[in-house]
Amino acid sequence: MVTMVKLKYVDELSGGRKRFRRRYPKDAAQVLGEEFFQVPMKARLGAALVVEQEALLAEFDKIVTKAKRKAAGQGTLSPLEHWREAVKEAEAMKAAISGVHDEDEAQTILAEDLHKRGADPVLVKAVMQPDAEAPPVTMLDAKEMYRKERMGGATGRNQKNRLDRVCRRVEEALGPLHTLPLVEFKREHGRKLRDFMLAQRKSDGSLLSPLSVRRELDMVRAMVSLAIVEFDLKGKAHNPFDGLDLPKNDIPPDNEWERRDPLPKEVILEMRKRIRGNLREPVLGLIWRLLEGTGCRGAEIVGLRVEDVHVDAPNPHIWVRWHEERRVKTKVSIRAVPLVGDALVAAKDALWLAKGEKMLFPRYAYEGGPDAVSQSLMKHLRKITKNKRHVVYSLRHNMKDLLVSAGVPERDEHRILGHSLGGVGDRVYGGGEARLKAATDAMKAAIALAP
């Protein structure tokens, strides 16, 4: 008795011929413009049919992966990535061929078959010339390397949007990223991009500020520098954005405290009433109270774990530190921040709501969570003030003003806000409990002056 096994996605055509046919996922189908992946098969039965089916399954997965990546907005593969993937795919396909005399015969058979199917020409070349020179590293490779190495695990919507926005400017000024080999960059490319950025206008018709241009150029410079190191291009490529600055008269002082205003007393009081009302998401009120009472950045509060909150310690505090769900901005941002007054009450309430959870605010424990919180809080704030310089981040300015008004030493002010300390002694000497006690006393003095 012969047992017949039906292989998944393999159907039978006339004359005993076999066909591999599998539906693409919806998002991949929209990119590919086709509903099905279907290929006539050479084998008709036995082990050869199984081997061919497995190879087609692998090919299907590769096509879908590329299509989904494009659908997710990560763009197409760079020429270099495309070539490297084609070489890997060609090696796997050749390894699956049996019954041939040597590798040359396998290459020829596979190349002819791929050509008849209308396969990717790069894949055909990878089959016939696997040792051919790889395409040059381009700005598209630099962008992807920067995203992985510098933004990995911290790619919230704002950061991703900023990277995409900067790269769009590069394309508008210099051309598509995949057509910009790093080894061909010259100083004129740097000047051309700088001048293009300085001439750009925002949605309100005003020119892009010199500070914004400088920040965006810094990102481009970092992308190219990282790619030169990671792709071993030292001595072959140079960074045309190194040392490239704006005309001196175009650079105003870079002072974040002049770009936003502290919230006025009446706005603070109205927001307190509003966030203690019937909010759809009560945790938003707790987050606002912690932001107001600690001076922390939004992501530092939203990314807290339950284990980072110490309300029963001699000096109650939260720990702002690195973990997989939240990566802090800089090394000096890792710190203990005292909990005093209403912030301590809010922290206790948050712990009660988060019983059994790992994250203090599980509702927003996802990539983009801090952005969602900021947007929600801004909607409430805009009901009270239309001043564009009044934002959620203004609460850090309020805390700084309170610390200054309370006569808090600059050392303790910087420790509370997570700013760089000046002298080496301030950074490395003194026990942790002593520093926390000093910061707690400073915070109590500041909070006593709050409205």
UniProtKB/TrEMBL annotation:
For this UniProt entry, which residues form the secretion signal? none
Q: Which Pfam families match?
A: Phage_integrase
Q: Which domain of life is it from?
A: Bacteria
One annotated GO molecular function is: DNA binding
Kindly state which keywords UniProt assigns to this record, in alphabetical order.
Answer: DNA recombination
Q: Which residues belong to any copy of the Tyr recombinase domain?
A: 258-441
- GO terms of biological process kind: DNA integration; DNA recombination
Instruction: State the protein's name.
Output: Tyrosine-type recombinase/integrase
Q: What is the native source organism of this protein?
A: Ruegeria sp. PrR005
Organism classification: Bacteria, Pseudomonadati, Pseudomonadota, Alphaproteobacteria, Rhodobacterales
